[in-house]
Amino acid sequence: MTYRVCFVCTGNICRSPMAESVFRAHVERAGLHELVEVDSAGTGDWHEGAGADPRTVAVLEEHGYDSDHIARQFQSSWFSRLHLVIALDSGHLEALRRLAPTPEEAAKIRLLRSYDPAAVGGLDVPDPYYGELDGFRACLGMVEAASPGLLTAVREEMAGRAA
Question: Where is the active site (predicted)?
Answer without folding.
Answer: 9, 15, 127
